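Reviewers of the previous submission asked for a worked example of the structure-prediction workflow described in the proposal, so we include one complete record here. The input consisted solely of the amino acid sequence. No template or homolog information was supplied to the procedure at any stage.
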Amino acid sequence: MATLKREGIPIGRKQVSGLMKQMGIRAIYRKPRLSIPNRESKRYPYLLKDIEIERPDQVWCADITYIPMKHGHLYLVAVMDWYSRKGAVGVVPQNTN
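From that input alone, the workflow returned the following structure tokens.
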């Protein structure tokens, strides 16, 4: 849409959405509300509430994120030491078997 405006073509979000629908195309992005927990799921307490982090290797955190791609998906993985804020990031491609 920004490219069209730079080219001098006045167009709005709703018009772009309507044209995309007419052409049968859609944007590739993560749909909202994909991480809604089950009501019966157990909730765990925050274990680091009263802990003072005073040295490296005392507390580590990790996260993994699913990223949809045009042809499949991949996972982005991050691990970090809370004290030093140093960490590592890796990409795990989908299984191609």
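The helical segments are 2-6, 13-23. We consider this example representative of the routine output the project will generate in years two and three.
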